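Hi R.,

As promised on Friday, here is the backbone we talked about, encoded as structure tokens. Could you run it through your design pipeline when you get a chance and send me back a sequence?
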């Protein structure tokens, strides 16, 4: 589909005309509301493998669809999932908070998505994308600390090598889990979501570096590049931690 879609209030309302799933059920993101949470003791800590390598190398490997020994993959989910892409949703100087998932209505500065496909069952991400057990996304909420620089979203920056493991919170055992969708067209309801409970804090400069590492950057409009929370459609949100249990100190 080469239909040109865009973010912002005007763009989003047209998604479902060309991509019917965008107007369907079990869409993402959602607001992670306390009354919908259900503790599930079977949710084991997420294990990441080969994340200690450089983002641009690993994601290029991943795009070839080969789930070899060197590929980044995660365990702790019902299948083995291999990483294929990472990208960030953020706001803009006009709307500085641009995370997609919100927690009890609180929107964070930005949100990192590491997209994986079920490499045990499917040969590549294209085949997996519209299957109900096809995709898994690790989502990290991001808080941004000022480092003195001006935050200009269209600034060209050099992309330094960075270690993807450092973009995940320390605690991989505390997370929200639910069945949802891609948050951009075609919005397939094929994503097993893991949203880590603890946000990471990075500098504005690091936000720009993340943006530069994206494979196919889409121009970010002034309103940001995030989708607003969708209907929960009677879904429950499983959590791996008990209410009242402390999050990480950092
Ligand atoms: C994905 O796999 C399918 C089936 O094996 C194949 O037909 C298709 O060309 C592959 N796509 C890419 C992008 O590798
Ligand atoms: Zn995303």
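Update: got your reply. Pasting your designed sequence below so it's all in one thread:
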């Amino acid at each position: 589909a080469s239909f040109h879609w865009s973010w912002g209030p005007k763009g989003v309302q047209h998604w479902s005309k060309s991509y019917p799933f965008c107007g369907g059920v079990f869409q993402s993101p959602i607001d992670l509301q306390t009354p919908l949470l259900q503790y599930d003791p079977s949710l084991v800590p997420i294990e990441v493998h080969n994340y200690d390598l450089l983002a641009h190398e690993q994601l290029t490997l991943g795009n070839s669809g080969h789930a070899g020994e060197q590929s980044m993959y995660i365990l702790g989910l019902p299948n083995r999932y291999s990483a294929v892409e990472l990208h960030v949703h953020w706001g803009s100087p006009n709307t500085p908070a641009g995370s997609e998932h919100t927690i009890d209505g609180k929107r964070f500065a930005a949100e990192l998505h590491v997209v994986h496909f079920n490499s045990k069952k499917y040969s590549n991400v294209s085949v997996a994308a519209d299957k109900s057990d096809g995709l898994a996304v690790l989502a990290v909420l991001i808080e941004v600390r000022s480092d003195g620089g001006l935050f200009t979203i269209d600034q060209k920056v050099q992309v330094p090598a960075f270690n993807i493991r450092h973009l995940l919170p320390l605690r991989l055992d505390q997370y929200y889990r639910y069945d949802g969708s891609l948050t951009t067209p075609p919005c397939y309801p094929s994503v097993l979501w893991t949203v880590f409970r603890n946000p990471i804090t990075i500098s504005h400069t690091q936000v720009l570096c993340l943006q530069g590492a994206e494979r196919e950057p889409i121009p970010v409009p002034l309103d940001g590049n995030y989708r607003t929370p969708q209907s929960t459609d009677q879904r429950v949100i499983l959590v791996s931690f008990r209410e009242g249990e402390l999050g990480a100190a950092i």
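One thing I noticed while checking it: The chain has five helices and 13 strands.

Thanks again,
M.
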